[in-house]
Every structure is written in structure tokens, then in C-alpha cells.
């Protein structure tokens, strides 16, 4: 066991360079600055006891990213177990339908898509949003995502398909 | 143009970061009628836009603060594991994102075993810490404390109940309650947090069973 102060210093040196990237991913996952900060904070709290282990990891960036995803997934599962978590899902569904039924004929301009992209992500339920972020924005394969979620790749594929369909509808693509 | 020509164009556009969807009439006409190409096209646009989507910066001191908090929370957890505090002292507050943790302080000296102390005669002092985490700053939050008979707040002898208004900053707020115990007392501190009509409570069991040095304070 290291001196507490030494451990804190090592932890700081190891983690500080990765915080901007972790925050960026957390923001995409959660859709808000506050939630992103909370998620990264929670991750750091969980990682501190692993300071020794992290010193031996060669590619710490990807390792941290996976840890962040896993934490997000765990949080999702906690929310899903609460009854109000379900209610949120239904509300999102209604909003999606409303938002996409304005003018289905007209195809959106790229600037409009850009402008509405974050809103579009936010109306997805968090599980679908995370699959979209992992696969489309960050380039994880479906197999890798399935491993992180401990779910069949087929399930992830279905979620991705539905999420993309919703995004496109919302964005009028 | 056939599907393969269209897909070639789509790939070119994506690769060269050209404006998408509306400028190329041939593509637009084709994807209007071909579902598969349309799907590939919109997939490509979506992927590119998601990858390039700007993300606002965190607050300036976020990284340093987050690191510091992580160290602090772990030191507090360590104290908690040494003390073996009841799970009742952990409480999820509103919306599941705000939480309170209560931790009697045992100075957190490494190697201090849970039952290593002796019961000391006379008055004992101990600090209970409660972390209140809020997603936004809270003006006029109300905190109320109820104490059992044999426990008192150090600066308020004889008071069993205290209520006051306070302002909580966004993030973690550490509330420290220096307690004085009668002899080898055992009791609890009940803390109520009220904001905007919502009330949350946490009851923290406290004991004066261990002798220890003056408090090592973990401040925020
Ligand atoms: Zn086609």
C-alpha cells in the first residue's frame, strides 16, 4: 500500500490527461454538462483504488473509455429498475413521434441536422443513445459493445437499428 | 445512375467532407426512390455528424476538482469501511442523482481496526460528516438535526433539535457536525434535508466507543 499522498499524486498524473476525452464521451452519453461531470466524477471515485493497476496499463485511454461505458451502463440498469425510469421512456416515445411528424416530405439541410443533433440524441432512451454514441461516434464494433453490455450482439444490432431510425425521423433525414 | 454509382458518390462526399443531402441532384433524385441507398446515405451523414458534433467544455476547474473529490471520497469511504457504518446512513435523495452520505469520523488512520479502541470515560468528541450532493445550487435549503439525549452538537449543548436555512452549491457539499457524547453513549443523529417541498432524511447511528486523537478533518 502506498502512502495516501503518493497515491493521490500518481492518480492525478495518470488521470488528468484523459479527463477531457472522458468528459466528451460522457457528454455525448448523457446529453448534459452536469450529468457528464457527474459521470466522470463517479468514474474517478471508482478508479482511485485501482491506481496501482492503472499504472501497468499500456493503453490507458481506451481502458478508461470502457470503464466509463460500463459505469454508464450500470447506472442505466439502476434507473431501469426504478418505476419512474420506465415512465421517462414513454414520454420520450411520444416526443419522438410528435417531432418527426411535422413535415415528413421535406428533407433536412445539413445545417439543420447539425443544429438538432444533440436534441435528437437526447430524445433517445439512454440505452439506445449509448449504443449510437459507442458505435457511430466512437467507432466501437457491435461485438465490442455487446461485450461491454454483456448482451448478445444481435440485441445491440436491433437497438442500433431502432435508434438510427428514430434519429433520422427526428432529424427528418 | 445505378445504385453502385450512387454509393460511390456517397462515399466520395463523405470522404471529402462535402455538403450532403441536397446539393447533388442526381443523388437526391435517386435516394428519394431507393430505400437502400437512402439508408446508406443517411447513415453516412449521421455517422459523420455524430463524430464531429461539438461538445461544450467542462467548467474550467473541473478536472482538478474531480480528481480532488475522487481522492477525498475514497478517503472517506475508507473511514466508513473501518467504522462499519450502517447502510441506513446512505441515502438517495431526489431523482436519484442527489445523495447524502453520513460518516462518523474516526480520523482514518491506516491500520485502525474497527474494534481496536477502548471505551474512554468522560466526554467524547466525534465529527459526523454528511456529504450533500446537488445537481444545481440550492438557495434556501433547510437542514434540520435531531439528536438523541446522550449526544449533543459541540457548540449547542442542551439542544436536541436544530433547524437552519442554508445555501448549497452545485456539486458536493460537506456538512460537518462535531458531536459530544456522554460517556460511552450510543445514539443517532437524524438529519433532514428540505428543498422545494421535498424532504429527505438520513439517520446516522453514532457511538462513542473508541478512543481517538482529535479529529483529522477532511474539508471540502
Ligand atoms: Zn439505390
Structural notes for this entry:
The complex is a heterodimer of chains A (about 170) and B (about 220). Chain A has about 170 residues and is mainly alpha-helical. Chain A has helices at about 5-15, 20-30, 35-45, 50-55, 60-80, 85-100, 110-125, 125-135, 140-150, 155-170. Chain A folds into two domains: about 1-90, Rna Polymerase Sigma Factor, Chain: A (Orthogonal Bundle), CATH 1.10.1740; about 100-175, Arc Repressor Mutant, subunit A (Orthogonal Bundle). The longest helix of chain A has 22 residues, at about 60-80. Chain A is elongated. Chain A starts with a helix and ends with a helix. The relative contact order of chain A is 0.11. By secondary structure, chain B is an alpha+beta fold. Among the domains of chain B are: about 5-50, no CATH class; about 125-220, Immunoglobulin-like (Sandwich). Chain B has four helices and nine strands. Chain B has helices spanning about 5-15, 25-35, 35-50, 60-85; strands spanning about 90-95, 100-105, 125-135, 140-145, 150-155, 160-170, 170-180, 185-195, 200-205. In chain B, a hairpin with a 4-residue loop joins β1 and β2. Residues about 80-120 and about 210-220 of chain B have low confidence and may be disordered. The complex binds zinc ion (ZN). Zinc ion binds near residues 6 and 37 of chain B.
Amino acid at each position: 500500500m502506498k502512502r495516501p499522498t503518493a497515491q493521490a499524486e500518481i492518480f492525478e498524473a495518470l488521470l488528468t490527461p484523459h479527463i477531457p476525452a472522458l468528459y466528451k464521451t460522457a457528454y455525448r452519453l448523457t446529453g448534459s454538462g452536469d450529468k457528464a461531470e457527474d459521470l466522470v466524477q463517479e468514474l474517478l471515485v471508482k478508479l482511485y483504488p485501482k491506481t496501482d493497476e492503472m499504472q501497468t496499463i499500456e493503453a490507458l485511454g481506451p481502458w478508461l473509455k470502457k470503464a466509463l461505458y460500463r459505469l454508464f451502463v450500470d447506472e442505466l440498469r439502476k434507473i431501469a429498475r426504478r418505476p419512474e425510469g420506465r415512465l421517462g421512456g414513454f414520454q420520450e416515445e411520444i416526443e419522438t413521434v410528435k417531432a418527426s411528424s411535422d413535415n415528413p416530405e421535406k428533407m433536412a439541410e445539413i445545417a439543420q441536422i447539425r443544429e438538432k443533433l444533440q436534441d435528437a440524441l437526447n430524445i433517445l432512451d439512454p440505452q439506445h443513445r449509448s449504443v449510437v454514441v459507442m458505435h457511430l461516434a466512437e467507432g466501437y464494433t457491435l461485438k465490442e459493445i455487446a461485450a461491454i453490455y454483456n448482451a448478445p450482439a444481435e440485441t445491440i444490432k436491433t437497438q442500433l437499428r431502432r435508434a438510427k431510425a428514430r434519429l433520422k425521423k427526428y432529424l427528418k433525414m | 445512375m445505378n445504385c453502385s454509382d450512387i454509393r460511390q458518390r456517397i462515399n466520395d462526399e463523405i470522404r471529402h467532407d462535402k455538403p450532403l443531402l441536397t446539393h447533388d441532384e442526381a443523388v437526391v433524385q435517386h435516394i428519394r426512390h431507393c430505400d437502400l441507398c437512402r439508408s446508406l446515405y443517411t447513415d453516412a451523414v449521421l455517422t459523420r455528424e455524430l463524430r464531429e458534433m461539438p461538445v461544450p467544455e467542462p467548467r474550467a476547474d473541473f478536472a482538478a476538482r474531480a480528481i480532488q473529490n475522487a481522492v477525498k471520497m475514497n478517503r472517506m469511504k475508507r473511514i466508513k469501511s473501518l467504522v462499519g457504518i450502517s447502510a441506513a446512513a446512505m441515502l438517495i435523495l431526489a431523482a436519484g442523482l442527489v445523495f447524502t452520505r453520513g460518516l462518523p469520523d474516526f480520523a482514518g488512520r491506516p491500520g485502525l481496526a474497527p474494534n481496536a479502541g477502548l471505551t474512554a470515560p468522560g466526554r467524547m468528541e466525534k465529527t459526523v460528516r454528511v456529504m450533500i450532493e446537488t445537481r444545481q445550487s440550492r438557495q434556501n435549503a433547510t437542514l434540520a438535526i435531531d439528536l438523541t439525549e446522550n449526544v449533543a452538537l459541540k457548540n449547542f449543548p442542551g439542544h436536541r433539535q436544530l433547524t437552519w436555512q442554508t445555501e448549497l452549491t452545485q456539486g458536493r457539499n460537506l456538512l460537518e457536525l462535531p458531536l459530544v457524547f456522554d460517556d460511552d453513549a450510543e445514539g443517532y443523529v437524524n438529519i433532514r434535508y428540505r428543498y422545494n417541498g421535498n424532504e429527505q432524511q438520513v439517520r446516522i447511528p453514532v457511538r462513542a466507543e473508541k478512543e481517538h486523537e482529535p479529529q483529522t478533518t477532511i474539508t471540502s
